[in-house]
Specification:
It contains 7 helices and 17 strands. It is α/β, with parallel strands linked by helices. The protein has one domain: Roll (2,3-Dihydroxybiphenyl 1,2-Dioxygenase, domain 1), CATH 3.10.180. The protein is globular. The chain binds fe (iii) ion (FE). The site of fe (iii) ion has 6 residues, from strand 9, strand 13 and strand 16.
Length: 338
Amino acid sequence: MSAAGAVREPLHDIAHLGHVELLTPKPAESLWYFADILGMQAVRTEGQSVYLRGYGDYATWTLKLTEAKAPGVGCIGWRATSEAALERRAAAIGLSGLGTGWTDGDFACGRTYGFRDPDGHRMEIYFDERKYAPPEHLRSTLKNLPMKYPLSGVGVRRTDHLAVLCRDVAKNRAFAGDVLGLRLREQVVYENGTREIGSWMSSNAIHHELAYVVDIKGGHGRLHHFSLWVDERDEVLRAADIFRENGIFIESGPSKHNNSQAFYLYSYEPGGNRVEIYTSGFFVFAPDFEPVVWDETSRGTGVYWGGALPDSFLNYATPDIDAEIVERKAAALVFDPR
Ligand code: FE
């Protein structure tokens, strides 16, 4: 019998990562990146936000782009498995002291319970959502595809995951595991198992929907990257060509992670957020899957085929704390009362 046999009954109250809000100081340019370059469909504009979707997303929308002073992640939405599951998780989150209360929900979503994770990332959970109903010109000839494959752009199928930074990985991983019910898939733990650098977690068979990685600059509530799925490695390679042709900065890849085994490409969207085009990660079906732990030696550079990730991959996240410090210094010079 595996060690997992000794743990408590798993929670299945969260079905999947539902939607992610990204903040951008350059809304028009960011919309161009997601709609024209990645081939996502904009379905609604409301206030300072645009709602988008990948062609394979079943929900009306999965990405919300919102204008803001600085880039970063806004609200991270989790879809519950049922109304009863939503009630159970809302009660559990409320008991944890991190709940922010019920709202009527975002566009095309029903009643929603808001909360923050221990690091301060804004999250919400909901069950009721409106399925995507394509206009006639976007209707697929495949009865089981929510929208036709885009005529141009990368053609991302769906939202896959996001990686956020936090001061205390163990604390946030415990919250996501114990209160939300996400299962731990892989970890990076250094210094003889005493320093948790990162934890990768999921509510379903997808390898990970949420990763917590330590914020080496001591920030709070920051985003490392947001990731979108394509079906084939060839599509990742094609994305790299499309990025190069259109002035999109490629930070790393195409290459292969050791953690998750996935094939990846990291770019920065014009607002400054790091966006990953991702495929081929393995799925986890076993209820007693034992988390894989990597240490300094076994992890290496984190790149399966060798080579190292650039320094920016470790040092840059959104909002960019370094840029804020430079801005504050400049403002202090301008407004110095002396
Ligand atoms: Fe990723």
